[in-house]
Specification:
With about 325 residues, this protein is α/β, with parallel strands linked by helices. It has 2 domains: about 20-270, Alpha-Beta Barrel (TIM Barrel), CATH 3.20.20; about 290-330, no CATH class. It is about 45% helix and about 10% strand. It has 12 helices and 7 strands. It has helices at about 20-30, 45-55, 95-110, 120-125, 140-150, 150-165, 180-195, 215-225, 245-255, 260-270, 295-310, 315-330, and strands spanning about 35-40, 60-70, 85-95, 120, 130-135, 170-175, 200. Strands 1, 2, 3, 4, 5, 6 and 7 form a 7-stranded mixed β-sheet that branches. Strand 1, helix 2 and strand 2 (about 60-70) form a beta-alpha-beta unit. The longest helix is centred in the N-terminal third of the chain and has 17 residues, at about 95-110. It is elongated. The N and C termini lie far apart (about 55 Å).
C-alpha cells in the first residue's frame, strides 16, 4: 500500500510546525514512502533545504505551501462580514515552472496581501497558475468552511473557479484526525465531489513527527498566540493526531475509501521538479544600439566612465586606477 503525505508543516511554519526537515525526511524514508511534500503556512522558507534533504535520502521532494487566500481582493485590509480574514489552500509545484510561480505567489502575498497573514487572491493565483496542483486544504479551506456553515452554493462557486483554472490538477482534500467538525463536514465534501466530478485526496495535517509530540506542539501554539496553557479560551487543535502517520495507519483510517489515499500517488506521479543549484542565473540587460558598444562589459565601462567624470571632473590617476581595478574584478 503506497501513500505520500501531501500536507506537511515543518518548523518553517513559524510557531506552529514542530518538526525539523531532516527528521521529517528521515521518517518518510523509514516508512518507505517514495515522496514527501512541504506545505508550510504562507511561505517557501524551507523549500531549498527540504529539496536537498529529500534528494540526499532518496525521497522525492514535493515543493508546496499552504497559502492564505483572501476572501476578496488581497489588498483589502479590513474585516468582511461573514468571512474569515483568510482561508487555506494547498498549492504544489508540478514542475520548474510551477516552482517559479509558487515563488511569485509567496512574494506577492508578503508584498501586497499582508493582513495578519500573507495572503493571495484568485486574481494573482490565476496569473501564476501554470505548473501547479491545488487541493482544497483542511477545515480552514474555503470549500470546507462554506459547507460547514451551510453555504453550499458558495462552496460550489469556489470549486467551479478552481476546476476551470486547474482542471484535473484540482482535488478536494479530506482529513480525519478524530475531530467532530471533520466528521460533520467531510461527508458533504464527498457528496460535492460526486456532484462535480472532482477527485478526492486524503491527507494528514502533519505538524509534528511522532504521536506524543502533541504536548510540545501545544506549548508552541501558546507561544504563538501569547496565551497561558491553562487558559480555557485559548486556541487548541483538539487532537493528538497531527503526526506523520504510516501508510498502514492512513489505510486503517480510510479503509472504506482507499481510493482517496491512492490519489496521493496520482499527484506524486504528476510531480516532475528538478532544481539545478549549479546554474548561474544572472539578469540580462539589453544594450541600446545607439551606445555603439558590442558587449555588456564595454557598456558597463562606458557608463562607469561617464559617471566618474560627473563626480570627478579632473579624473585623476587615483580615480582612474580605482575604476579600472573594480571593472577588472567584475569582468
Amino acid at each position: 500500500m503506497s501513500f505520500v503525505h501531501l500536507h506537511s508543516h515543518t518548523h518553517y511554519s513559524l510557531l506552529d510546525g514542530a518538526a525539523k526537515i531532516e527528521d521529517m525526511v528521515l521518517r518518510a524514508a523509514e516508512l518507505k514512502m517514495p515522496g514527501l511534500a512541504i506545505t508550510d503556512h504562507g511561505n517557501l522558507f524551507g523549500s531549498v533545504e527540504f529539496y536537498k534533504t529529500c534528494k540526499k535520502h532518496n525521497v522525492k521532494p514535493i515543493i508546496g505551501m499552504e497559502a492564505y487566500m483572501a476572501p476578496a481582493e488581497r489588498g483589502l485590509r479590513q474585516k468582511i462580514e461573514g468571512e474569515k480574514d483568510s482561508y487555506h489552500l494547498v498549492i504544489l509545484a508540478k514542475n520548474a515552472t510551477g516552482f517559479r510561480n509558487l515563488i511569485k505567489l509567496s512574494s506577492t502575498a508578503f508584498l501586497e496581501g499582508m493582513y495578519y497573514k500573507p495572503r493571495i487572491d484568485f486574481e494573482v493565483l490565476e496569473k501564476y497558475s501554470e505548473g501547479l496542483i491545488v487541493t482544497s486544504a483542511c477545515m480552514s479551506g474555503q470549500i470546507a468552511h462554506k459547507l460547514r456553515t451551510d453555504r453550499k452554493s458558495e462552496a460550489i462557486a469556489h470549486a467551479e473557479k478552481y476546476i476551470e483554472l486547474f482542471g484535473d490538477d484540482f482535488y478536494f482534500e479530506i482529513q480525519d484526525h478524530g475531530i467532530p467538525d471533520e466528521q460533520a463536514v467531510y461527508p458533504k465534501v464527498y457528496d460535492l465531489a460526486r456532484e462535480m466530478g472532482v477527485k478526492v485526496v486524503a491527507t494528514n495535517d502533519t505538524h509534528y513527527l511522532n504521536h506524543g509530540d502533541h504536548r510540545a506542539h501545544d506549548v508552541l501554539i501558546c507561544l504563538q498566540t501569547g496565551k497561558d496553557r491553562d487558559d480555557p479560551n485559548r486556541m487548541k487543535y483538539g487532537t493528538e493526531h497531527l503526526y506523520m502517520k504510516s501508510p498502514d495507519e492512513m489505510f486503517s483510517i480510510f479503509k472504506d475509501k482507499s481510493h482517496v489515499l491512492e490519489n496521493s500517488m496520482e499527484i506524486f506521479e504528476k510531480i516532475d521538479l528538478e532544481l539545478d543549484f549549479d546554474q548561474r542565473l544572472l539578469p540580462k540587460f539589453p544594450i541600446p544600439e545607439s551606445e555603439g558598444v558590442k558587449s555588456e562589459n564595454e557598456y558597463l565601462r562606458k557608463l562607469t566612465e561617464e559617471g566618474a567624470r560627473r563626480h570627478y571632473p579632473d579624473m585623476g590617476k587615483e580615480v582612474v586606477e580605482r575604476m579600472n581595478f573594480e571593472l577588472d574584478v567584475i569582468e
